[in-house]
Design goal:
The protein contains four helices and 15 strands. By secondary structure, it is α/β, with parallel strands linked by helices. The strands form three sheets. Strands 3-6-9-12-14-15 form a six-stranded mixed sheet. Strands 1-4-7-10-13 form a five-stranded parallel sheet. A four-stranded parallel sheet has the order 2-5-8-11, with no helix packed on it.
């Protein structure tokens, strides 16, 4: 298993993730991890035949799970899909490491004042049904609450709640106690 995929699996189970049975069970019984596995394999493919094979697997998993994250999306190591189902991320989005995402999330392009796609920092959690759109920068250690609408820049060590979104700043990381099994 590639090291980046192992780091992604580590986010689910910690040191237990090195066990072969844990790897197998997460692949077969955790749709979010299976999607991540195919996503990473399609990105890491080094020849046209393997690239085609992994992209077909990725596309099939995309259709079966409702998770729409194109292979061209740049996501750092330690990516975790907390709950699977209808997740949409624009392919031009850039996401840092230790990223958690839940069901119903949309991260996408927007025209207008903040035209573009989001750039998301490290140690970010985006909870269920949140929407992050436009050329905005989400800082490090940010927690986006369920159902929040974010179309503005968010500084480091913040929580975003509500629709329209409202920023609550913290002196320390609001995500530290929620991001378990991180690799430094």
């Amino acid at each position: 298993m590639n090291s980046i995929i192992q780091d992604d699996l580590f986010r689910y189970e910690g040191l237990k993730s090195k066990n072969l049975m844990v790897k197998i069970s997460y692949f077969f019984f955790t749709p979010g991890f299976r999607f991540t596995y195919y996503f990473r394999k399609a990105q890491l493919a080094n020849n046209s035949v393997s690239r085609l094979f992994w992209r077909i697997c990725h596309r099939s998993c995309m259709l079966n799970t409702g998770i729409q994250i194109p292979v061209c999306t740049r996501i750092g190591k330690e990516f975790r899909i907390s709950h699977w189902g209808t997740i949409v991320i624009n392919g031009e989005t850039v996401i840092g490491k230790n990223f958690n995402i839940a069901q119903g999330v949309l991260i996408g392009y927007s025209d207008g004042r903040n035209k573009g796609v989001p750039h998301i920092g490290d140690n970010v959690i985006i909870n269920a049904n949140a929407v992050v759109v436009g050329g905005v920068k989400i800082g490090n250690n940010v927690l986006v609450a369920p159902n929040a609408f974010v179309n503005f820049d968010v500084p480091d060590d913040s929580i975003v709640i509500g629709n329209p979104g409202r920023i609550i700043t913290r002196n320390s990381s609001p995500t530290a106690k929620y991001l378990v099994y991180t690799v430094e």
